[in-house]
Amino acid sequence: MAKSPNFLPIIDLSSTDRVSTANSIRQACIDYGFFYLINHGMEEEFLERVFEESKKFFALPVEEKMKVARKEHRGYTPLYDEKLDSLGRSRGDFKEGFYIGPMQGLSQSSLNQWPSEGNSCMPSWKTTMESYYEKVLYVGRRLASLIALALNLEERFFDKVGALHAPMAFLRLLHYPGELSALEEEVYGASAHSDYGMITLLATDGVRGLQACFAASTICREKDKRPHIWEDVYHINGALIVNIGDMMERWTNCLFRSTLHRVMPTGQERYSLAFFMDPNHDCVVQCLESCCSEASPPKFPPVRSGDYLEERIKAAYSSQES
Ligand SMILES: O=C(O)CCC(=O)C(=O)O
Ligand SMILES: [Fe+2]
Question: Which keywords, in A-to-Z order, does the entry hold (predicted)?
Answer without folding.
Answer: Iron, Metal-binding, Oxidoreductase
